[in-house]
Design a protein that fits this description.
This protein is of the alpha+beta class and 469 residues long. Helices cover 33% and strands 33% of the residues. Strands 1, 2, 3, 5, 8, 9, 10, 11, 12, 13, 19, 22 and 23 form a 13-stranded mixed β-sheet that branches. Strand 14 and strand 15 form a beta hairpin. The chain is globular, with a radius of gyration of 22 Å. The two termini are 36 Å apart.
Length: 469
């Protein structure tokens, strides 16, 4: 690792860019982004994520285990924090301005500066101290980013020069971060905690079931088409949770999901989500409608029967159709073309199976992935339909600060392309405490007992990853 993250050639190239950016920043009286990318040998980015825990406040991970793609960010060269309903487009405006005159080397390379982070579910909710450090929107340009794609790996160094900051100061900070990552990372042993964490409910099961019943009645009265209700549980462990160990378990157990982590100070929001919100690559848009759930079967035959029942279940199909219609209507105004299968398929995860419809299209020119995410979020799969009425119901009845749970996590590059996912199957860790979340879509014929059982199934990935079951 020593020869990969440092060396005279790399130092000379970066120092030259920093001097140019410093002069440009003073001359134009504005911040100037500098980014340098070079290929390196492969490395265990998750082990580095773990090793940097004590000395790096910002650590970010986006990993798709089955495709071999990952982004791992360390430190913060630039932070964009936003609030309110326009938090996505406000972020895009700041990021686009910063990238418009950036010094990026190589300018035509496969990767370069990437903004990573996430956004809350609903800025209209009352915020609690549980989510301190996680505002409505927080996107970070890492000082160091490691990108892995199958058997290839790239190192990206980023800096933002301001008139009052010298090139030498930025160079010293980058060097400090590189030395941090040159430490030999310890292996992440897959060992259980010395004792299981203690589980407690934030709301009684009876109270949550009552709200499900109230929501179903509201749908039957025609006040809503669908609403999603979430619940949370807490874990308290005898020692601090290890986010990297949990991430390793999630990547092994759920390789087809997006495994993500956003660590800020003493908090780490992480999970393994099956739900892609949006991907934009070379002008092509792709997303997935994921709504409608059944458990997995104990045998192959039972599992096939459950999948057939899911496809034939009128309640689950109606829920799926509501989400799909809303997504297609939104994307249709931003895309020159949309391809949508006529019927859903079944996506099988280790603990649950979902109705799934992929959507593909061609993005209209001069649009960022963030602009479309702002229009899509929150989809009916995590909020409800109609959106405003569902959000009002959730604020009044859910009695939970979701924070970033069911929000959007992901990344955007300097071209405005990138990928975001819906932050489900997730938990917020702080030391030896963890808050885990799960939600269910409620329609007219939803049964409170069945919905509660489904929410328990959806908690399983994080409970397992944190050693609680």
């Amino acid at each position: 690792m020593e020869t990969e993250l440092s060396g005279p050639a790399l130092d000379g190239r970066m120092d030259g860019l920093l001097r140019l950016a410093s002069e440009k920043s003073r001359r134009e009286a504005r911040p100037v982004l500098v980014s340098l990318t070079q290929p390196i040998q492969s490395c265990d980015s998750l082990a580095l994520f773990s090793a940097a825990a004590g000395s790096c406040a910002d650590r970010l991970l986006w990993s798709q285990p089955d495709s071999g793609f990952s982004l791992t960010g360390f430190g913060a060269a630039y932070v964009i924090e936003t609030a309110g309903s326009r938090r996505f487009s406000d972020t895009a405006a700041v990021w686009n301005a910063l990238c418009s005159e950036a010094l990026v080397e190589p300018g035509n390379g496969p990767y370069g500066p990437v903004l990573m982070g996430g956004f809350s579910f609903d800025p209209g909710q009352s915020a609690s101290q549980v989510w301190r450090g996680y505002p409505d929107g927080r996107m970070v340009l890492p000082r160091i980013c490691l990108t892995t794609s199958r058997d290839h790996c790239w190192l990206t160094l980023n800096a933002v020069l301001r008139p009052e900051v010298s090139a030498e100061e930025e160079s010293a900070e980058i060097l400090r971060m590189r030395r941090l990552l040159q430490m030999e990372p310890a292996a992440i042993a897959d060992r259980p905690l010395c004792a299981k964490p203690t589980l407690s409910q934030l709301r009684s099961s009876a109270g949550w079931r009552n709200e499900v019943a109230a929501a179903a009645r509201a749908v039957r009265r025609g006040e809503l088409g669908k609403v999603v209700l979430a619940r949370a549980v807490q874990l308290q462990a005898p020692q601090p949770f290890d986010p990297a160990l949990a991430l390793r378990r999630l990547a092994t157990g759920y390789p087809t999901c997006v495994v993500f982590a956003v660590a800020n100070g003493d908090g780490c929001f992480l999970g393994a989500t099956p739900e892609r919100l949006l991907k934009v690559c070379k002008g092509e848009v792709s997303t997935t409608c994921l709504a409608g759930s059944y458990p997995r079967g104990a045998t192959s035959e039972e599992d096939r029967n459950l999948a057939r029942a899911l496809l034939a279940d009128p309640k689950e199909r109606r829920e799926h159709a509501l989400v799909l219609t809303a997504m297609v209507e939104t994307l249709g105004s931003w895309c020159a073309r949309l391809d949508v299968p006529e019927t859903p398929s079944v996506l099988k995860l280790p603990n649950v199976q979902h109705l799934c419809t992929p959507i593909c299209g061609r993005l209209a020119p001069d649009r960022s992935v963030l602009h479309i995410v702002e229009q899509l979020h929150p989809t009916p799969s995590v909020g409800g339909q109609p959106r405003d009425l569902a959000l009002r119901f959730i604020r009044e009845r859910e009695a939970l600060d979701r924070g970033w749970y069911t929000g959007a996590v992901g990344w955007v590059d300097h071209r405005g392309e990138g990928e975001f996912a819906v932050a489900i199957r997730a938990a917020l860790l702080r030391g030896a405490d963890a808050t885990l979340f799960a939600g269910c879509g409620i329609v007219a014929d939803s049964d409170p007992d069945r919905e509660y059982a489904e929410s328990c199934i959806k908690l399983t990935p994080m409970l397992t990853a944190l050693g609680a079951c």
